[in-house]
Amino acid sequence: MSAPSSQRLAEPTTAGAPAPPALRRRTGRWIEQWDPEDAAFWDGPGRRVARRNLWISIFAEFLGFGVWALWSIVVPQLPAAGFALTVDQQFWLIAVPSLVGATLRIPYTFAVPLFGGRNWTIVSALLLLLPTTALVLAVQRPDLPFAVLLAVAALAGVGGGNFASSMANISFFYPEREKGRALGMNAAGGNVGTAAVQLAVPLVIVAGAGLALERAGLMFIPLAILAAFLAWRFMDNLGTAKADPRSFAVATRTRHTWIISFLYIGTFGSFIGYSGAFPMLMRNEFSEITLSIAFVGALVGSVSRPLGGIIADRVGGAWVTIVAYGVMAAGAIGVIAALGQHHFGLFFTSFMVLFIASGVGNGSLYRMIPAVFRAGARTPEQASAARRAAAGCIGIAGATGAFGGFLIPRGFAVSTDLSGSLVPALWLFIGCYAVMAVVTWAAYARRDSTMARI
Q: What are 311-356's pLDDT values in tens digits?
């Protein structure tokens, strides 16, 4: 006899204890009702189901970030594989995945309510097979026209879109009181994918004899299939996850959305931009140094992100963000000094300062968003509107900030082309950090501002 299309599932209960609220399921692993704000439901089946979905989501997003960053570590190896590329062309190959990934973040956000979180995780994981398989074929063809190579690199942008859909999906599973921690774990797990790929690829491609760049793509193919299988087997779709285009419409009409989006280019944009460019900069400026240590930058930037949120909870996100910009400027000045002295120790240390400060700034600025929109709410209706606007702002800022991953490598390319040096680009970045620090102070930290101590 076939199973019914809808069934009620509950946790086992002890004798005499009231049964916790049950999950109502239908075919396709859809959960019809989901109320994490109900304490009895959350302590019953809710928490267990949410955690299971979170861990698989982290793994899938980890792979997405890894594929997104794949060309950052492959490009410095292309000349050794027989590719005749200019420095400008190499920076294009590093920058274009960030451009595509940033553009995909908004539609990926709406994919979860339209198709279901489980279903879209399966699709987004399988989509990673496109850039990885294309890379396997492309890196074995040194005669490939640059336009084709650029198109192959652009495919890696689908990995950048995974962040938006993953964060949107997990946000539906968790209650407000635990949402920050869950989303922080999800984001950090994804960001670590950048470091992981920069650690693993240099080791994998030289295993055995010669240089086998195609292994950089091959290593992801079984992992992407595994992520799709785990999502199919263990994740859930939430029937209560509904798209709210109004949140984006409300957010676009609020000046804070655009201020925060601008500021996020300086924090997350710096993280993803420097992560992409760092291996290339190491290879060009210090060719005697092995690329196997390039991953440390992305790693420290990833793990310092939660620290920014923790500190912001204590002293206010605005001041933490301002200090982060100042430290990033100091790090960039250190890089300039290191280039003048050709001192790798100072170069590496200064970049670590940049990565740590960008991670802290990511955490503090992300923590500011709900607080900024909640500040003016006086009634339940205003509070509800503020939550919608904050949700829209998070999506818009996340997409806008990712464009920094395109702007920073292109800034280095133009600077090198016009002056033969990275220094003008670094001074430009320092000026941007100074402007962003002033904007943060003026909007959110002035003593007479209504946003003080946000």
A: 888 888 899 999 999 999 999 999 999 999 999 999 999 999 999 9
The per-residue b/e assignment along 23-33, b for 16 or more CB within 10 angstroms, e otherwise, is: bebeeebbbee
The CB density around residue 233, as the number of other CB atoms within 10 Å, is 11
d(CA 415, CA 424): 6
Q: Hey, what are 205's tokens?
A: 């491609």
> Measured between alpha carbons, how far is 318 from 440 in angstroms, rounded to an integer?
6
Please state the pTM of the whole predicted model. Answer: 0.86
User: Rounded to an integer, what distance in angstroms lies between the CA atom of residue 201 and that of residue 73?
Assistant: 7
**Do 234 and 272 belong together in one domain?**
no
Q: How far apart are CA 354 and CA 352, in angstroms?
A: 5
Run of H or E residues at 26: strand 23-26
Using alpha carbons, select from 351, 328, 327 the residue that is nearest to residue 338: 351
- Sequence length of the chain is 454
What is the CATH classification number for the domain harbouring 209? 1.20.1250.20
DSSP 138-185: HTT-TTS-HHHHHHHHHHTHHHHHHHHHHHHHHHHHS-HHHHHHHHHH
One domain for residues 249 and 398: yes
Q: Is the same domain home to 227 and 288? A: no
Q: Which residue, 208, 224, 243, sits at the end of a domain?
A: 243
Q: Give a yes or no: residue 25 inside a domain.
A: no
pLDDT tens per residue, range 229-281: 999 999 999 887 776 677 778 888 889 999 999 999 999 999 999 999 999 99
What are the residues whose beta carbons fall under 8 Å from the beta carbon of 28, sequence distance 6 or more? 116, 119, 237
Q: Taking the alpha carbons of 358, 158, 227, 41 in that order, is the dihedral positive or negative?
A: positive
Same domain membership, residue 251 and residue 189: no
Sign, CA dihedral 439-445-450-451, equals positive
Helix axes 117-127, 87-115, angle to 10 degrees: 160
**Alpha carbon distance 341, 398 (integer Å):** 37
Q: How far apart are CA 402 and CA 104, in angstroms?
A: 10
Which pairing describes strands 30-31 and 23-26: parallel, antiparallel, or unpaired?
antiparallel
Q: Is there a contact between 247 and 388 (Cβ–Cβ < 8 Å)?
A: yes
| Owning domain of residue 438 | 244-454
